[in-house]
Automatic annotation (TrEMBL):
Pfam families: DUF3800. It comes from the Bacteria. InterPro entries: DUF3800. It comes from Paraclostridium bifermentans. This is DUF3800 domain-containing protein.
């Protein structure tokens, strides 16, 4: 199998600026798209579909996904979603950047065995860190810039004193673990888990979100198809400054990424189109819900596009690494903004009916999932 990859959402490190704001604005989510082709015949058929798409609209050069999401290219977008996107060739990984930082923070303090045993509580806690008061996320990013015993101890005390939404202190995994670490007073092993300067081969990098996303997508594909590394050839659009780091970090797992310019490979162009479309959809849709504008008339178009994207890909080909409420909201959008769904059922009443059903299903999914990091890394190396 061959896997062709491109991403959207600002490549690289997730950090905070001097004013304590994260280094992303509208790009709240990071999206990686993988295109899976079984053999040369499969690859040829997909390329022919894309070639026909370009011929229909007289497209001579490479077209970017960001262009497809503009009003000028509405017809092209509709054709692309109907005729290129499918549930066979595409694999998507969506990361909320704040949620990514929350999971890094928690994995520093909470042992993986506890996460495996209390997976639902773990996810609920990560949700709380993202959705209610981001102070701890900001402080963690600052800690990662220069971790030492003194700053780590301050951070542990901040965890204990932080106000958590709807979680009692005596049931809070972070507080329980932070109190234990403070009592023990040995911080060395915990400091070593922080993705700080020096954790990657390039000392300038910390919290490289696209590397996490990449390994998760590769793991998904390998598990879905029962592949070993020698049977999977991976091609990724060129990323200035990150190619050497990617291959250096993946070398211990016997995984090599071939970096290719999108101008030379049409499947990477398609991956760019899809990654950009998905990123635009989720960024805009979640923003509309957060601003309480989801039922306004001018929100309908982007909601319909997101619904169609999820429906075409199916949820089995999308990994949502998001706060549960946004994960559930995405599934509600798919349900409510399908073309066949009546317009008069796009309102708060019907949303709540779908929303609580999906919240329950998501937590069921989390409860049944294997979060054993050691097993995942072992499989990644096969």
């Amino acid at each position: 199998m061959e896997l062709y990859l491109d991403e959207s959402g600002n490549t690289g490190c997730v950090t905070v600026k001097e004013n304590d704001y994260f280094n992303f604005k509208e790009q709240r989510h990071f999206v990686l798209c993988g295109i899976k082709v079984q053999d040369e015949q499969d690859k040829k058929k997909l390329k022919e579909r894309y070639k026909h798409f370009k011929e229909v609209f007289g497209i001579k050069e490479e077209i970017k996904g960001s262009d497809l999401m503009t009003r000028k290219y509405n017809k092209e977008l509709a054709y692309f979603l109907d005729n290129i996107l499918d549930n066979i060739h595409f694999q998507i990984c969506i990361y909320d950047k704040k949620f990514y930082i929350a999971t890094l923070l928690m994995s520093t303090i909470i042992d993986n065995s506890i996460k495996c045993e209390f997976s639902v509580e773990y996810y609920q806690l990560a949700d709380t860190l993202v959705s209610h008061n981001e102070d701890l996320l900001v402080e963690y990013c600052k800690l990662a810039e220069n971790p030492n015993n003194e700053s780590f101890e301050r951070f542990l005390k901040s965890i204990i004193n932080h106000r958590y939404f709807n979680i009692q202190n005596e049931e809070n995994l972070l507080i329980i673990c932070a109190e234990y670490i403070l009592q023990e007073g040995d911080y060395v092993s915990y400091l070593s888990t922080i993705l700080q300067h020096g954790s990657y081969t390039n000392n300038k990098y910390i919290n490289v979100i696209n590397l996490n996303c990449l390994t998760e997508l590769i793991l998904q594909v390998k598990k879905s198809y029962g592949l070993v590394n020698e049977k999977l050839n991976i091609f990724h659009d060129k990323i200035d400054g990150y190619d050497k780091t990617f291959n250096s970090e993946l070398k211990p797992f016997d995984i090599k990424i071939n970096f290719t310019d999108s101008k030379d490979e049409e499947l990477i162009q398609i991956a760019d189109n899809v990654a950009s479309i998905v990123a635009k959809c989720i960024n805009e849709c979640i923003k509309r819900f957060e601003e309480k504008k989801e039922w306004e008339e001018d929100s309908a178009w982007i909601m319909k596009q997101y619904a169609k994207v999820i429906d075409k890909l199916t949820i089995y080909n999308i990994k949502f690494t998001l706060p549960v409420k946004n994960w559930a909201t995405s599934l509600c959008i798919r349900e409510m903004f399908k073309d066949e769904n009546p317009i008069n059922q796009r309102n708060e009443k019907y949303f709540n009916e779908h929303y609580y059903k999906y919240i329950y299903e998501i937590y069921q999914n989390i409860d049944n999932k294997n979060f054993n990091a050691r097993e995942h890394l072992k499989f990644l190396k096969k």
